[in-house]
Amino acid sequence: MYNITAYLTIKNKTFYTLLTYYVDGIRKLKWASTGIKENESKKKAEKKLIQIRDEFINKLETITTTKTEDKKIQISFADFMIKWLDMIKHQVEESTYTGYKRQIEGRTKEYFTKHPIMISDLKPVHILDFYNWLYTQGLKGNTVVKYHANIRKALDYAVQTDLIQTNPAIKVGRPQQEQFIADYYNQEELNNLFKVVKDTPLELIVYLTAFYGLRRSEVLGIRWSAIDFENKTITISHKVVTVTNEDEEVKTKTKMITKSKTKNKSSYRTFPLFKEIENLLLYTKKMQEYYASIFKDSYNKQYKDFVCLDELGNLRKPDYVSHKFKQILRNNDLREIRFHDLRHSCATLLVKKGISLREIQDWLGHSSSKTTERYTHLDSSTKINSASAIEKALSFYTNTDNKTNKKDILDLDSNTSTNVNISNC
Question: Which tens digits make up the pLDDT trace of 98-108?
Fold first, then answer.
């Protein structure tokens, strides 16, 4: 709403209105004739003044709206996504923002720069074409879903800020996700792993991860202050993650950050301290004190409360853990799995030992039991009891009138030349 001051004055023996208003802090003047002569009614001229003022206000607002609409039209979708990225920077966790930034400044910007489209002209077909292009780039459905989620959220913001009237992403179906079946180690394989990681930099990390089913970020975030040796408990309350380094003066593309909170409320949990783990922790603590004493000023004291450090007191990097783990498996001819699969291994071991799904959910720190179900894998040995029960309850139909049956065929003398085609059985 414009604040306009209107004055009535006489010019050339005619009543004129003088309108005073401001645009971007600059004072403007507008003269307009009422068409009423000086010798006519002044009240009539005053009414005309109000009419002229109101019409001028409406005209200014129409011009402003038109300019705003024109400005909207000039915003490309690629530029809008960058602006949205800046807007949410301080509303999400740094690690989450890093994921958004990688997508938007990467393939999203690349595609919509080559195929420019104004946000006001964006249609569902344009979004679908982008998803199809992502598939041609080798991305899987699980990754394309993340692009879809970000675009939909960004366009929701565009609707809220009146850049567009409706969100075209709503009409685009959620990309199909592939069913991911994670791998895991069974009990024997885990015990073999414990043997080969002995006296390696990953010994404690592997034990903690496998015994407690921790996420990589959680195991690296364990602090000495979270371990109660007196009451024999260990609490998961921090995490260490890798994010994009935006400091242009620093050459490294990524940096590690420590978070004084877990992935979700359920992830904050306290475990009993196993004797084997306790011994490893106490040994690690002594070794850290030893390294600090011999390296002196070269030893990094910034992370002295963290458990998983290298010899110079630096945090163990998440990527180092994954790469070193793979290297250990290869060097010892062990079946290759991801480091995160140790978490699946823990869940599977628990379910095979008869632990309830609810208890496993608490142990793993899942907010949903559906997530826990994806982590609990059952191999063929767990199906033996089910197979036995079905076999006892049901029986195969046998036609007693038919003298020849499948058992007779299978019992034929192996020396005969009869060939039995069972490909269609």
Answer: 888 989 999 99
